Amino acid sequence: MTPLVVFLVLALLQLAFTMHTRSVLENAAEDAVRVAASYGGDSAAGERRFRDLIAREVRSDAIQSLTWASTLDTLTLRVRSRLPMLGPLGPFTMTTDASAYHEEWP
After folding, report:
1. Which is it for strands 74-82 and 63-70: parallel, antiparallel or unpaired?
2. Which of 57, 59, 77, 83 is buried most, with the most CB atoms less than 10 Å from its CB?
3. For residues 9 and 52, is the Cβ–Cβ distance under 8 A?
4. How far is CA 47 from CA 17, 28, 59, 75, in A?
5. Strands 74-82 and 93-101, how do they pair?
6. How far apart are CA 41 and CA 49, in angstroms?
7. pLDDT for 51-80, tens place per residue?
8. Which pLDDT tens digit goes with each residue over 12-53?
């Protein structure tokens, strides 16, 4: 009975860490792409915003890559990161995408 309870507690903790990391990265990516797509913005400003937002929430070495893609009217940021894992599991990665329309003055 005790090993099962320990396993369930660790599984719940792992789920909480994963959901927290996912939420932080999604929100930071959405905000960063809005900054970059705003009038006069660029991907460097968006990346600075992204790194400022995650600085206190996610380990800096967890981010594996930030990839910017642009079409005529849309800017997209793809974030690839390692998940925080309990125990010997992993490494597992997660990918988050965020998009915004480029703002232009007529």
Report:
1. antiparallel
2. 77
3. no
4. 23, 10, 16, 13
5. antiparallel
6. 11
7. 999 988 887 778 899 999 988 889 999 999
8. 988 898 898 899 999 999 999 999 998 888 889 999 999 999
Token code pair at residue 96? 């988050």
Handedness of CA 59, 18, 83, 88 (dihedral sign): positive
CA angle 86, 61, 79 (to 5 degrees): 95
Encoded tokens for 69: 């893609």
Give me 18's structure tokens: 């994963």
CB 62 within 8 A of CB 84: yes
